[in-house]
Amino acid sequence: MIEEPAASVADEAGRDDAAMDVSRPTPEATPPEAAPPELPAELSEAQLEALLFVAERPLTRREIAAVAGVDRATVDARLGDLEVALADRGVRLVLSGDRVELVTAPDAGALIARYVGADAVRLSPASLETLAIVAYRQPVTKSAIERIRGVDSDYTIRTLLHRRLVVELGRADAPGRPFLYGTGFDFLERFGLTSLDELPALDADVAARLAEEGGEAVKAMPEPLPGFGAAGHEAPSTELAET
């Protein structure tokens, strides 16, 4: 009778390890991460228009470049193309500094106002005068406005702030750190401008009067533009259609 050789300690240990491997759960394979959506290699006018249409606020050129995955030069080029393409359309491209936004065309304001049930905003002569000073002298403090007008302008400024025709731009580096005021997108939209560069040039005497108070130089011309008063705002109408 032939005896089977005794199992070695090593063999026994190997069988135990194999049994443990069978009972040990196999770790699940980690699924590969989903690849981020591919960014467009170029930014077309249609893509830019769609992006600005769905945006709930003005976008900066940097934001557009980051979202589209293109450089600033491409964004600037497409903005220029889109501005020309929309020149005679129902929506316009408004540029204010580094920010851009789509707005309705000024000549559609009355129709849109009837649709949304909004009344035309009426501005008093004092409000128009103050708004003209802010538009041409921005950024400007309340004290500078009052020196130019010669009267207290606190209520008028608060009214323009409420209507969002004037906005706070920051504080002046002066005693008391007074607020600096300027115009925002609502001002451009309601007066049918696409940028502050489209403001009509002032009468030379008015420009000199504003310049005496310091601050940025204002545009001047020998004679005021037809249809504009000496204060630099359109004289015939004080109604601004809500858009």
The assigned CATH architecture of the largest domain is: Orthogonal Bundle
Summed up, the helix count is 10
Mean pLDDT: 75
Q: Biggest sheet, open or closed, and with what strands and sense? A: 3 strands, antiparallel
Features of the shown structure:
Arc Repressor Mutant, subunit A; globular
Structure summary:
The chain has 243 residues and is α+β, with helices and mostly antiparallel strands. The chain has helices at 9-23, 45-54, 61-68, 72-85, 109-116, 125-137, 142-149, 154-162, 185-190, 204-212; strands at residues 59-60, 91-96, 99-104, 121-122, 166-171, 179-183, 202-203, 220-221, 239-240.
What can you see in these coordinates?
There is one protein chain. The protein is globular, with a radius of gyration of 33 Å. It has 243 residues and is an alpha+beta fold. The termini are far apart. The protein is 41% helix and 14% strand. The chain has ten helices and nine strands. It has two domains: 45-104, Arc Repressor Mutant, subunit A; 111-240, Arc Repressor Mutant, subunit A, CATH 1.10.10.10. It has helices at residues 9-23, 45-54, 61-68, 72-85, 109-116, 125-137, 142-149, 154-162, 185-190, 204-212; strands at 59-60, 91-96, 99-104, 121-122, 166-171, 179-183, 202-203, 220-221, 239-240.
